[in-house]
Amino acid sequence: MVNPDDTTSGEIPGGILVDVLGRRWYRQAEFVSYDMFMAPRVPGATLLAVQVALAMGNCSSAIAYLSGVEAADAAIQNAHRYANLLNIPVRQNDGAFLVLVDHEAEVRTKTSLGGSIIFTSADSGVNEIRWGPLRLLDPTAPEPKRMFNIKGKERIELTPAELATFNTSYSQYLKKGSNYLPYPKLYPYYGGMFYALSNEVEIYRNGNRDNPRDRVLYRDFSRIGRNGALTERIVKDIPTGSIGYAAIIPKEDDFLEFECPHFIELGDSR
To answer: What's the superkingdom here (predicted)?
Structure first.
């Protein structure tokens, strides 16, 4: 079906086709599966051989059986991209797939993967441990590789100018026992969450003052009430004027259900 309102979307193999006239043809579906987006399955004979090898404790043979299997990352990502675009569920309740974790699937709709299997192998991920960025302390650290990234509404981060105003006029309310924060930017987000992170260190893990990742900064969060009220009391005495990061996490309109597949990790995948 042609979507006349869409003149900019790129192709999503299995979901959106752009013809020579620039029209966007959308796949009609009430839900999508990985199969619909041409995700290559682990062949039945290979899957059986892998399962037998694993039952015998022979991981090296299991890895070898998967070495010639085509990865399904891109197709899995495309299925979720299209589901997110149309706000429809993803269902894949059988089959086995190999992922290299080189395409992150952003999940924003109900997903049911029970009954399916996802393998990683010695070729999956990267050959290093990645703990990910740490706000204010190690913000440029590389992101870890993810198969799925379950997402909701985007958080609303305070700008540097807003942080300056907050530190001057409102940070004094972030004290233990307080349940009042009359910051006007919070008022439209009743039921959401407010999170604040200080530049000041509360704890040094193992007394280590050299490694930034061993520093635990003052932080707190609370659900946003009405007209400056906080639903939960602040539990930390955060030093006044020290907030280096703050964000509003809006309340979601509904629960997002994610039924995970059966994961089998092989090799040194990360």
So the answer is: Bacteria
